[in-house]
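Bump. Still looking for 2-methylcitrate dehydratase structure tokens.
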Amino acid sequence: MKTHTVRTHRSDENLSREGQLAWKIAEVAVDPVAVSDEVTEMVINRIIDNAAVAMASITRGPGIAARSQALDHPYSPGASVFGVTGGYSPEWAAWANGVAVRELDYHDTFLAAEYSHPGDNIPPILAVAQHVGCTGSDLLRGIATGYEIQIDLVKAISLHAHKIDHVAHLGPSAAAGIGTMLGLDAATIFQAVGQALHTTTATRQSRKGEISTWKAHAPAFAGKMAVEAVDRAIRGQTSPTPIYEGEDGVIAWLLDGPNASYEVTLPDAGEPKRAILDSYTKEHSAEYQAQAWIDLARKLHNEHPELADPAAVDSAVLHTSHHTHYVIGSGANDPQKYDPTASRETLDHSIPYIFTVALQDGSWDHEASYAPERAGRADTVELWNKVTTVEDAEWTRRYHSNDPAEKAFGGRVEILLADGTTIVDEIAVADAHPLGARPFARADYIRKFRTLAEGVVEEAEVERFLGLVQRLPELSVDEVRQLNVVARAGLLETLATPTGLFSTKGQL
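Sorry for the wait, here they are.
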């Protein structure tokens, strides 16, 4: 790996194109290095994972709305949209599929200086592959690049420290991945990366306070912008330059300021793109920092069933990392995190709620655990209000560690009982984490897909998709176009579909 120092430059310094981070990203994208077998297997896992969570969300509001927009943009051959047959304009297919993948907060994650869901790269890259006519090996190389660039940026550059949403790293990574897949030259990818970054910087208010359905749409918007940026770059249109380092660029005005510098490490020429192996998926439908806490709560439920009774508990304090405390914990100072009428999006960013329900139920379900009647249960609300978080310096240090063996996303819980006794336990990583009690393997991804597709997809369609995706490197152009999952007959027709500006019905 090669480390690049990235800093703001005055306009009169005339930073060369080759000296810019967007160009260095483009150089990684055009490197024809082979994809390793290990990375290939993980890419397949993550395509299965995306399809699983997408099928669980296609009957939910955000998925329905985004799909209805895509269906108003038919195109032949175009790209496929989860749940339906036919071809659609690739940027709109990327949009609809991106929302379906993201809505339940249930796919892969990587956390470092910034937060990310690198699986968000797959919908735009796959949509372009289907539209243009790429092979499975082309698609594989593109996805490997998308993961590499996003994870490398996430390791180096914090966006949330300046209240910028994490999808600002996704626009450039998806553009780079598309560039790799299409075999574009470095100059074209450079322009696409710059445009994709410029159009995808937004505030983190979408993840603060009362969290709206836009949380599901934000990554899909970044993917859509990446597709459009590549299209413009291919047509010869240029981007703001230098996009990261310019006097009025991203670093100077959105991040650490004119005097700041970052150390960004990217693969050197000829070095394999392996970053996807650093990421991890979710066993539970909740913010990633909640994964380990759900597992610990399940353990405590079995060992101490009395904890389900709020009368038995005086307080429960979760000692954890800065991020967990301030973003999804009581340190956020968001009253909505204790509101039983809060939206699902808000509850999946409330670790006091999640820990409480998992502690009482000994399980976690992507629907039942968020149901209004579950959140409003009197004994749950009583116990919920006794759960708080505090930042622990050691757990924050471990959260930011670059050593995989030390990096942790959990913490220590101290539960004071009404009788004066205390129960203390801790967990470093989720059970499904590569270093956890039950690391996810291919069989787990397939089981997750089968579970979430049940009742939504016919068994024959499940088998067809699983048989196809597991041959990814050898897929033909036509087979790549079949990398989609169609809902069982009649399911989607029962749903009320909203109309809008693009409606083919011609009226609102």
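The two ends are 53 Å apart (CA to CA).

Edit: fixed formatting.
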